[in-house]
Queue: 2 jobs
Job 1
Amino acid sequence: GAVVSQHPSWVICKSGTSVKIECRSLDFQATTMFWYRQFPKQSLMLMATSNEGSKATYEQGVEKDKFLINHASLTLSTLTVTSAHPEDSSFYICSARDLGTGGPNSPLHFGNGTRLTVT
Amino acid sequence: EDKVVQSPLSLVVHEGDTVTLNCSYEVTNFRSLLWYKQEKKAPTFLFMLTSSGIEKKSGRLSSILDKKELFSILNITATQTGDSAIYLCAVTILYGGATNKLIFGTGTLLAVQP
């Protein structure tokens, strides 16, 4: 089945530094990937939709200059948290849909997530 | 504003009990409703529902959608401790003309005690 790989699985960084998270679709191509954020014991909140070869679409309230998204190929999207602060500490999850097997309504496949802790 | 609401927020039961989790939604351009189970990391897919009244079943889990009343339920019979997780309901909507977007509910935290 479709597999989405996310790296790193956890990262600790100092306040003010930037952190890059990678999301790869391993056995399918994804023109669109989705980035979610999840706080403890809360649901997933969509941050942005990553579009291959074009600009990402950000949800209301998400700072595009702080959460930089690049989708340079059909199998890779990256999320960079710039100038991270402790309030950015969270669980970030990417997902993608295998349009080749299930079409636009097929379920999303999720990466294993990245636990970011900013000290 | 599109929204998906789940109830209860949390639930504690004993092994062997049957539980029903609820999901209601108010969205535009509905495409499908999905249930996911989340343990420690990423959510894992359980069911996708697109038509009213057709029950989907997988082992002890089943789910059904009512598109008229805008809700879905997820049933788990003979619960086991391994069923302890957050259960997420999500609705796929069409936005921007060509892209499907998934909106998650608040989740229900289920704890099954031995």
Note: The two ends of chain B are 41 Å apart (CA to CA).
Job 2
Amino acid sequence: KNQVEQSPQSLIILEGKNCTLQCNYTVSPFSNLRWYKQDTGRGPVSLTIMTFSENTKSNGRYTATLDADTKQSSLHITASQLSDSASYICVVSGLSSSYKLIFGSGTRLLVRP
Amino acid sequence: DARVTQTPRHKVTEMGQEVTMRCQPILGHNTVFWYRQTMMQGLELLAYFRNRAPLDDSGMPKDRFSAEMPDATLATLKIQPSEPRDSAVYFCASGPPLAGGNNEQFFGPGTRLTVL
């Protein structure tokens, strides 16, 4: 069964610190992997999308990495801000049904002053 | 600033009542998705439309749920009759015509449904 697993489930860091969120997936064949940020009470917003040929992509202070061989991805947040407090969801789509996104359960990040 | 809009944002109803949720996709987008999000299950795909045609509704309980696109600017999700286990946040997302397989999806703010 295609799965996406994320760790940690939750994380608390101090403002200004860096953090890294992990994602492992078993989806095969693989089309692309994306990271979404979901603020409380809002819909998910895409941060990055990577295909199997890409191994890193940045969006401001967010940098995603992808190792298609080991089926692992990470999202690194640099110099965290209070507004980074949100859930971060790793999402994978397979080649066979590229419209069908397989969602991880998310990492809930809290940035404290 | 193009956005997916959803109405209502919140809905509280009693078991057995009909619930209708509406979504206006981003102008020019030809794919529409309905998702349900709960604490236990996370985000689940309920239905997928392309060019207003339903292509996948395998994630939707057929006996009580129905999804339609009366026109390109409106998608609806109906539950009849509603049950307490339907309580969740329902998201609509739309996407531009497929290009290179990176089917970007833009999510609306969601409808939080509570069935008592």
Note: Residues 62 and 77 of chain A are 5 Å apart (CA to CA).
